[in-house]
Design goal:
By secondary structure, this protein is an alpha+beta fold. It has six helices and nine strands; from the N terminus they run αββαβββαββααβαβ. The protein has a nine-stranded antiparallel β-sheet. A hairpin with a 3-residue loop joins strand 4 and strand 5. Helix 1 crosses helix 2. The longest helix is centred in the middle third of the chain and has 13 residues.
Length: about 260
């Protein structure tokens, strides 16, 4: 079932059994069955809003990687994850390592804005979400990490979410457009968010998504495959910006 989060999975434990084979022998032997002790593997801790920060920080210490390769229906994108957003970096790596992102779809694509991915497509994705737990990620806003062209950020629910906590599964790539100083002034008055000089200098000369700064956490950037995003946003969509023909994330690999 489709659902939207505007800019709007979990480890499977498999027990193995081994057959004990008798060696062929001409002499009668006593058959002794060796009883192996049963050792229960610890269950993965379900993540909640109460333990999410500690869980992700601990995971991030074991997984310091910052480079990921995302293979889509229309090309490959390589991204760098920011160490300045440790919770979001660790979460992306953790979700990718479960295999959740593989075969998910792009749920919203808008020309000159963004392409949003990570929507579960089948029962496997639902099962992984259930095993991971229902949680959101605390916002990690950083004035130096804003919505430039090629930025990678997390989607979130807008209703009943005053802390602007992120959805752990849905993320987007920024294509963006150029903003005038007058338009930036309007957004400042509307949102109360003040743009830095660096942000104004960028947005008035380069494509970005200034209007959602400090609304969504930017946790990475595209380092290869910039040309893939315009291909994604150029497809025909329905009235809710969902591609009429499914566009997939085929695989997400954490490289280094």
């Amino acid at each position: 079932m489709r659902y939207f989060v505007f800019i709007l999975a979990s480890y499977f434990f498999v027990s193995c059994s081994q057959k004990l084979k008798e060696s062929p022998s001409s002499a009668p032997t006593s058959k002794i069955t060796k009883v192996e002790p049963v050792i229960e593997k610890p269950k993965r801790k379900v993540i909640t809003d109460d333990n999410v920060a500690d869980t992700l920080l601990a995971y991030g210490k074991v997984h310091p990687e910052t480079i990921a390769k995302i293979t889509t229906s229309l090309g490959t994108i390589k991204i760098r994850l920011f160490k300045e957003t440790p919770l979001h970096r660790a979460n992306f790596i953790m979700i990718a390592n479960t295999g959740y992102f593989d075969s998910t779809v792009f749920s919203r694509v808008v020309p000159n804005f963004m392409a949003q991915a990570g929507s579960g497509y089948n029962g496997t994705h639902t099962d992984l979400k259930t095993k991971m737990g229902a949680y959101t990620i605390p916002a990690e806003f950083n004035a130096s990490l804003f919505h430039k062209k090629g930025a990678v950020a997390m989607a979130r629910e807008y209703r009943n979410n005053p802390e602007k906590r992120s959805n752990p599964y849905a993320f987007y790539f920024v294509e963006g457009s150029i903003f005038s100083n007058e338009t930036l002034d309007i957004y400042e008055k509307k949102t109360g968010n003040k743009f830095t000089k660096e942000q104004r200098d960028y947005y008035t000369k380069n494509p970005g998504a200034a209007h959602i700064d400090n609304e969504h956490t930017v946790f990475g950037e595209i380092i290869e495959g910039f040309d893939v995003v315009p291909k994604l946003t150029a497809v025909e969509t329905d009235g809710q910006d969902w591609p009429r023909e499914d566009l997939f994330i085929l695989k997400v690999e954490i490289l280094k």
